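hey can u check if this looks right to u? its 1442 residues, i copy pasted from the old doc so theres a chance i mangled smth
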Amino acid sequence: MNEVKSPKKPLLYYYFVAMLLVMLFNFIAMPWISEHQIKDVDYNTFVTMTEQGEVGRVEIQEQSNRILFTSSDEKTVYKTAMVPDDGLVQRLLDAGVSTTGEEIEQTSTLVSILAWVLPIIIFVALGQYMSRKMMEKMGGGGNSMMFNMGKSNAKVYVKSAEGIKFDDVAGEDEAKENLTEVVNYLHDPSKYQEIGASMPKGVLLVGPPGTGKSQTITNMIANALYHGKSVLFVAEKMAALSVVQKRLANIGIDPFCLELHSNKTSKSAVLAELNKSLETARVKSPEQHAAVAQKLAQEKAKLNFVIEALHEKRNFGESLYTAIERYEQCMAEKGKISIGRDALQNADEGTIARFEEIISEYVVAISEIGVYAQHPLIRYGGCEYSTEMRDSLKNGLDRLAEEYGRADEALNLIATAVGLDGNISRERLNAVSGLIDACGEDAPVINEILVTADFDAVVSKLKTLCETGKAYNALCTEIENGFDKAVLSYPAQSARVKWKQAEAKWFLPKLIGQNRLYKELKVYSKNPAAFKKSDVCPLYDRLIELSEKSEQIGQIIPTLNITGGILSGMATDWDMLSRAVHKTEAVYGAAASDRFSDSEKQHIMNVFVKCSPQEIAGCAKNLEAVRSYTEKSDRLAELYSVNTEFEGSADWLTSVNSVFKAISDNISLVKSKAAFNLADKRLCDAGLAAVSLAYKNGTVSADNIRAAYHCELYYQLALMTIATDKRLASFNGKQYDALIDEYRRTIKEYQRLTMQELAARLSANIPVSDGTSAASSEMGILKKAIKNNGRMMPLRKLFDQIPTLLRRLCPCMLMSPISVAQYIDPSFPKFDLVIFDEASQLPTSEAVGTIARGENVVIVGDPKQLPPTSFFTSNRIDEDNSELEDLESLLDDCLAISMPQMYLKWHYRSRHESLIAYSNMKYYDNKLYTFPSPNDLVSQVRLIRPEGFYDKGKTKQNKAEAEAIVNEIIRRLSDEKLRNDSIGVVTFSSVQQNLIDDMLVDAFAKNPDIADFDAKCDEPVFIKNLENVQGDERDVILFSVGYGPDENGKVSMNFGPLNRDGGWRRLNVAISRARKEMIVYSVLRPEQIDLTRTRSEGVAGLKGFLEFATRGTNVIAGRTDMFAKADDSLVSEIAKGIETLGYKTRCNIGCSQFRMDIGIIDPENPETYILGIMLDGENCHRSATARDRFAVQPGVLEGLGWSVMRVWTLDWLDDSNGVLQHIKQAVENAQHPQEKPVGEVKTKQAPVFETVEKTPVPNKATLYETADIAPVGTPEQFYLPETVPVIQSLAVLILSAEAPISRNALVHKLIGAWGITRSGDRTDKVLADVFRMIDKRITIDENNAFFWLGKQNPDTYDIYRPADIQGNRRELTEIPSEEIISAMTEVLSEQIGLSRADLIRETAKKFGYTRLGTVMTSTVEFAVDKAVSGGKIKNNGDRYTL
């Protein structure tokens, strides 16, 4: 082609125009602007401002006959006319105003800025205009240049006889420059955003091999479509796109997705797909969808409640699950300690930590004590220790030991004197001491009462008698202090009565009577002058009380039957009697005490009743010696907290001495015992006295006290937590299992209904046309293209003309980057979401144009897989190309700019964990969650070493490996069972690939049946190399290394692409393609790879992989065990319980962070597990959703061949034996599985949905109802005042039937009822009064007013009325714009998009007008503009849509 260039004016021309504009602006506009910045005031104002000091500077312009002056802050300039004023100068001087004649600046800051900025703006505007004109001449548009900036490579070409070359289309330098600009944007978008460039919001989805990228993309697409969004899915390779397309078809939305991957896409095929979408049946929306969704949410919440409750951190700082684990860990110590609930009722994390600290101190303390009962200082209770204290204690003990002999001898003498048999306890000693003290008193024993049956009653009377006698004597003494003794016999009782009688009389008899009585007592007073009349009554009271006590004494004495001189009536020595009673009580107490034997009691009675005072004195002396020792021992025991209480001890004194002697003999142990006592006190004060008691009783020791404490602590905490949490209190494992089963059924039902609901929503968007679409409408354009098979209509142009319809028919488009550029114009409406797959293989330069076509972007890929490479552009892919470098990918640049990232971590592809284990460990840091296999004990990655060599010098082939692989393919395809597994071959070089391909073709030629079978398979055998295998997968992968020792046994460290920097990525892709099994054919042994000869990561990875294939998962066991839970005691305890049933188990099965908790090994096949046990522990809790933990993960495991059983922690805590019996039954069921009926293998097909009949867009047209109006009166009557109510009623009648109605039409109907044909001022005046009284709304369209009923809302009016029942039509000018807009939206619903002219014409047709005049066109145009401004329709440039 030859470039055709248009003539252009010289650049100097444009600069001359710009300078001319600037000069005109400064000479004309600036003076005018400056002049208008000055405020005009009168001369009086000027004078006033001067006198008030509000003037700053003044300039007198005599030639202009004016005065310019500024305000005092000089921010404002004023002017005034000059007037003759001789005193002006003096007035200015007095006011201190500057009159230097300096010119006042008249231009404001704004004007100054404009003077500089406006010319620049003119230059920029002119430059933009010139740029736009240049772009238009080059055939571009507003979006022709990336980010509206940079140079354009677009040129206009005409046909040339020469062939088309890349250099003809775009220069190499320009291409590199644009690519650099794109990459720079990705690395530093901020500097481009400053000039208006923008990129869509995006997220990076990193998906390693087999993590469900395609399914996730399908889910994202379905979710976006469900919410009415448009999606553009982009993939470089057709294989990746086909996988997603197939998955979309499987959920029933294939009709709404348009695939345009290749630039060779057939136009007729695309039109056929669009026609298919247009004719897609309307799917019925499932009525039960919302109800099932609600049910699913409720079931999910119930399932999550238990797991959340089990694992949420509690107030005591641990989860319930952890508490039960701790309990199970110490289960052997159960019951040895019993902690009360009170101590744990409000225990928080701090409390438990404090308990733990106290227990730790206690364990240290008791480790020095040993067996508590055998400790010599068991009775030492001191908590403090110092060397000084220890020495003081030792001295005290030594002194006490010296006194012990005397005390012991004295006690023996007392025992002999008293007649006690054997040793004396502390209680017996106290009793004897009290008896000796009592008998030592100077008082007799009252023998008469010792033998009475009611001793206690008699003693009580005696005590009362003593108290009364003492009170009598005290009262006598008191009275005799002021009166003669004779007064004691005065008749006080009768005198008191006389006094009261006199008091009741009138004044004179009262005075006489009371004076007489007063004088009678006054005679007895020792001080008559001091005796007052007011003292009479108190004296009466004392005398009466004295008489009463005398009488009481006289009553008690005769009842006692005591002879002898101790009782002498009122003359009794009451103190002596009291001592005698006390002594008698002591004797009787000793005789009645159970501390003494009967013989001892009798002897005591004889001794203390009959003994002489000398004998009693001897006992008292000995008692002093005993008491001295007792008091000193008690003080020492109190001072040093020594327990000297010996309940039931027969020889107390000896026992006490032995305690003190033990302390004295083991004084060095005081320090450790004090430390123990302190720890024990803290333990008891904390509420853990039960722990102390258990240790002291010998139930626990230092070895197991902590475990016993933890067992009891966490058991009680678990029980308390369960009891107080409603989510757990009523838990039942069987009911929970049933809920899970129901939940899984609900998920399936919800998925089915959601697919139907999605299809229903998408099918509802497909417009239904009546076949009368305008030629310019999107529907008309598409139908025409379908009818003539797109003649003269390229797909790009077709898509550009039907953007809205295309979105409704196919809201999801599946394309490659090159097809996006070919078929989607940059001006095409942006997609809501753009999704890239395999972004690691896509150069950024090929992706940016696609990214710009979306509002949001999701980049999907794996940075650890193949990058873009020039290998893809070459037919030779072997080690000869190894010097070529990998290119930067879209994924790399997205990572570089820190785009928000999300990760897919669950690996689903490999049906045996060993297939992905090496890649996971080596390249993904074991962060992939992989599923263990029931035959986990055997690796499915095998290494086979054929006998042969690598022909390095000649063919660069490895025939031995090739023959072995071809033979294995033929063997598998010949086997009826093995042939169902698909096969793929991966080689390191294209040479080896071609060799195997040729050999397989020859083998197929010899076995046509096998070849035919393979050709008909859904997944036929593929043979690919490292560079092009990404995106493919098969059940069985046969891997040919190819490289190895040559014929002479020498091994070169050149492994082709593996030696490059990105070689490890190729290896990672290659070894992650297998679903079920991988067989590695290699004449090369891992030990033959010498890593000292190469630094290539790819070669090191190959060596490790060959070792892995040789030895299995043992190679990586050490790396993966780090992810196993170190202290999963609950799992271990359950496993131990299972082993008691006679089964062998393994725990934490798997190579990744996801593990099968327990596997029960099949007794008949030790290489497999017969049953897998899943707990509700960390594996379960780590799962993000209920669907993951209860549906997806068990489903995957069951798909891998596991028989899975759930064991619930709460069930195990409640009844572990019952759980074990359920496990045993599950194992037996797995050993004898029920045979399932054999049926036809069902292939996955697209779902079939219930459909409903397609109905056109609901017609908004309705009849125009007219009011039936009969003649009412004459024209003259119309103007009468009494007619106004009639006119009002008629107006309301018309509005009720015909509103909205134009004011003109309403006026003509009203005046016509009175025979008036034309309105005038008189009619308008009457109607104005009438209209004011009517409840109505008024809208104005251009110059026309429309009346609505008050209850009608113009904003929501959505019908139109073409004609009345007789077919009479209104003029378009008589129709409110709201009605016209309703018809207009109906037109756009039917025809999707129309030009302005066609929209006006099609809308008018709705009202029966096929030909339009200027007025009617103007009316509809007004409605169009109003609809656009009101948001009812959109103006997309040359086309209008809803």
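The mean pLDDT is 81.
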